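Hypothesis: this fold can be encoded by more than one sequence.
Test: take the structure tokens below, design a sequence, compare later.
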């Protein structure tokens, strides 16, 4: 008996959630398809009904994990003035609880080195997640222009995660890039 579209979508979502937790806990390369599908309560034979490749799953799981983190943090600070929201935001992100639970933590902190070497679509998803977190932080910075606040929040985030790679990343901002040294800043 064939599944309905709704059942198929629900199964796909279950795979994404399980994959996200497995990737964050064990890393992308360590999480094999059989292990991921088992974590979702399925057999590995059904994987390709939902995803064309593991790369597609990684990209979508990365995107979902980043969005989930940002929306969770945003809900914690909603309605609070920036002078209360920023310390709360930083405190939640840097908390021992967040640090000690990688399966629900920050995809960028957990998988940064693997994401830097992932396919283009996955790097794009990671960059979008990074930008979402940066915008959330930037929105809480007072007395700073929006552009400068966004660049400042990116620099803070990058130094926290120790983002680095052998090549700079362009993030859609003119004159801004991550340098191979791991520092962020304006191009000169």
């Amino acid at each position: 008996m064939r599944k309905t579209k709704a059942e198929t979508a629900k199964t796909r979502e279950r795979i994404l959630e399980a994959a996200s937790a497995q990737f964050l806990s064990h890393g992308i390369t360590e999480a094999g398809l059989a292990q991921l599908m088992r974590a979702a309560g399925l057999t590995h034979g059904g994987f390709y009904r939902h995803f064309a490749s593991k790369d597609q799953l990684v990209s979508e799981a990365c995107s979902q994990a980043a969005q989930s983190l940002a929306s969770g943090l945003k809900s914690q600070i909603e309605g609070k003035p920036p002078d209360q929201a920023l310390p709360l935001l930083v405190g939640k992100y840097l908390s021992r609880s967040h640090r000690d639970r990688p399966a629900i933590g920050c995809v960028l902190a957990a998988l940064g080195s693997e994401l830097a070497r992932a396919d283009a679509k996955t790097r794009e998803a990671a960059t979008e997640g990074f930008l979402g977190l940066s915008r959330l932080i930037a929105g809480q910075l007072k007395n700073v222009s929006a552009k400068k606040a966004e660049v400042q929040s990116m620099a803070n985030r990058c130094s926290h995660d120790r983002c680095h790679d052998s090549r700079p990343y362009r993030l859609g901002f003119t004159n801004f890039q991550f340098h191979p040294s791991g520092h962020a800043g304006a191009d000169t």
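The two ends are 62 Å apart (CA to CA). Residues 53-186 form a domain with the Tetracycline Repressor; domain 2 fold (CATH 1.10.357).
Hypothesis status: open.
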